Give the backbone structure.
Amino acid sequence: MDVFIAKNGKTSGPFSPYQIRGKYDRGTLGPHDYIWYEGAAEWMPAEWIEAWKEFAKATDEQKGAIYFLGGRLGKGLMFLPAEAMILELSASQGREAELALWKVRRPRIHEIEEWYSTQKPSDVVVPGGVGSMLAKLAELQVGNPARYTSVTPEELLSMVDHFVREDYDDWRQAPPTPKQIQYLESIGEYLWQGATRGDASALIAPASDAQRRRLAFYGLSVPTLLSKGDASEMIDDYIAKHPESEEQYQQWKRDNDL
């Protein structure tokens, strides 16, 4: 849907609903400016878009659900297309029940993620990052509901592979484990001569595009082969040293409609 703006006697456009919503949220499109799209009977005050799902951006819960189902989060994702994508992905994979469990688990996911980013001991390294803790949480939700309800982040950490930082480099340089080799071969990936356990981890759980974007924003070197866990550690270390960087990054994302 192409949308046009009328402001201060001038019209501009076309814009996508995502761009319109971004302009409205940032204040460059005011509530008393006007918008129009093909098929509309007349120009309408921009403030009306607050009540229309067509102009609502995808929520954090929707984005999380899409990521959980293995979908791709493209720029400009809006509420209604996101809802349709979630229904399609869950139905095509037969994962409606899993998705329902994930939605119930979501508050606990936030709790674990917050603890990991702000309270995890700085000398502890989790090769799988917070994702390994969330996977263990999902196991408990199904297999041991009582334990799932009461388990603390510290207890979850004790249940997953983790290392004291002083031992981290030794771990990364060790040979790949048989499980790593077997898994990589099952997905058509083969390690080269001299590959390390850290190299294998980066192939099994590579850093996400969002992590790489954040590291680049911080001005940090982003290796081609980087695991999700290593990226999380780099981000956590940088934020600990530069606490103001988080707000700067979030503002940059808002400015760029990311």
The beta strands are 3-7, 10-15, 34-37, 44-45, 124-125, 163-164. The chain is about 55% helix and 10% strand. The first helix runs from residue 17 to 26.
